Amino acid sequence: MIENSTWGVILDRINDNGLDTEYSIFTWDLGKVKAKATSVRKITSKLAGHLEPGTLARLRLVQKAIDGNYKIAESLIDERTKDPRAMSALLFVDRMTPILQTDIHLFAFLKALVSGEEEGSEASHYRKVLSILGFDPEHAICSICGEDKIAYFIPQDIMFLCHQCLRKTRKGPDQRGVSF
Ligand SMILES: [Zn+2]
Fold first, then answer.
1. In angstroms, what is the span from residue 125 Cα to ligand 1's centroid?
2. Does the pLDDT of residue 66 top 90, yes or no?
3. Rounded distance, CA 108 to CA 61, Å?
4. Whether residue 64 is found in the same domain as residue 150
């Protein structure tokens, strides 16, 4: 077992099978990890309140030698947001980032977002995340027509679209892109 004391922003609660709850956490030194906590649904659980999405927490993670999976041994809240604009940005970061890829700029942005230092609209958060990840919307053009006034980003295709092409190509509400 390897123990790791770190800071992490809880991006999302992924699933819950009754015993274990799995979280997606962007940590300072490991990048994004999926980590499980045991029995957080129990009323007596001290962990649960410290693992709500939108929390920056001091964490103790234990990596099991047998399968490399992470377990959350301890979590202590430092900051927390409930701002819906910030929460949407956290889910967007979760969709856009691979596991175990460190990014100190992204971590700094997430920290500022959760502590309320990073203000702005949902759209401005998306723009910032994309630019940190190297897909700068400032210089992006529509993937279909080349127009430079982009309105939409589709994560699964890493594709920017303008208003007009968005209207033409939109397949339905399940195409989960983000609007600027
Ligand atoms: Zn277009």
1. 22
2. no
3. 20
4. no
